[in-house]
Amino acid sequence: MAPAAPAARHAPARPGPMRRTLLAGGIGGALVSLSGLPAAATPRISLTIAAFPLVDEIARAAIPAWQRLHPDVDIKVITRQYADHHTAMNTALSTAVLLPDVMALESSIVGRFAQGGGLEDLAIAPYELGRYRHLLVPYAYDQAIARNGAVVAVPTDIGPGTLLYRQDILARGGIDPAELSRSWDSYVAAGARIKKHSGAHLVAHVQQIKDILIRTGLKPGEGIYFGHNSQVLVQSERFVRAFEVALQVRRLGLDARVSAWSNEWAEGFKRGTLATELSGAWLVGQMSNWIAPQTTGLWRAADLPDGANSGYGGAFYAIPRKLEAGRKLLAWRFIQLMTLDRERQLIAFKTHDAFPALLASHEDPFFDQPVAFLGGQPARQLWRQAARRISAAPVHKQNPFADEVIGSELDKVLNRGKSIRLALADAQALLERRAHR
Question: What domains lie within the chain, and their CATH numbers?
Fold first, then answer.
């Protein structure tokens, strides 16, 4: 699922036989037998799923299939907006009050919640999620591993990064699309020519460029901001390069200085004043459905510049640790249904642009079909390859604070003329004081 804003995608259910065994289409046996559950439950049980848009729609669409398997167990889906949902889940885990049976979590939140110990470890019996690890996109599975080795959530969809560009604007300046992906220097140079020939900005805001570059070139086991033993890494060359490219783009006047999900951002797509966008593949569905449907056929997709690989959001399902054991088993059955069923994953992709975390889904012919919004380009093939190249970075409890610090220091570089080295040194000092809290 995409972060914040209208986080689009997720999906319906699949008809199935009236039996107590779940079969994942194409991966028979991936889902465990349900025969260990009681044949009938008295009184009637209700399983509560807490979700945010549009994960809630997928969960609701799965209710008929669930009840064919469990006619004695109802499903109740509770929906809150993105921020409200995650605040409520944090409170529920902290207080053990009003805990849902299953909670949906956005990818950037999973790591934070994992550190608190309030989520069930799905690596142990009776779940043994490790048996299914090979079935899931590697980086997505790895995102849910806590520092103590516990696996606290199961990925259901992911957001492989992509570069979207207006092919008509590039044609106006005689620019080869390959120039956008060749390197960051080539991307910026192409942006200068785009601005000259069309007046369009290369990108909405330079913070988008910074966010990719600080995640590029991570060493194994290295986090974005913190290394082993909470060592602060923000003076590394990754951050220097990110600030340098962002500053160059700003000085050339190539970013529109508008934030994602703002009205100005959406208008930039509609009016052709934004030539490229760096985001998750799921954005294509949102652009075609409500952001800029009138631009259908004008856009194309490419790899991120200089071979960068980055994930943009994604959704996970988790179980609160303090639930009663029998409810945990039912919650686990529901999670299996939503994450390990090939057909259900495909329906989510087709109807809500929820790019599947289940690898078996990636072999479906749907991935080879043309994408109308992208002028018939079979872009899902590109995104499938990108998904395999992304690596998960360990999440530190101070990551949200580090995000704010680095964003603030970049603003000082861009708007106040602060030197890059001093900005990063100040960030380093501040984060070192917070690293072990």
Answer: 45-159+313-368 (3.40.190.10), 160-310+372-434 (3.40.190.10)
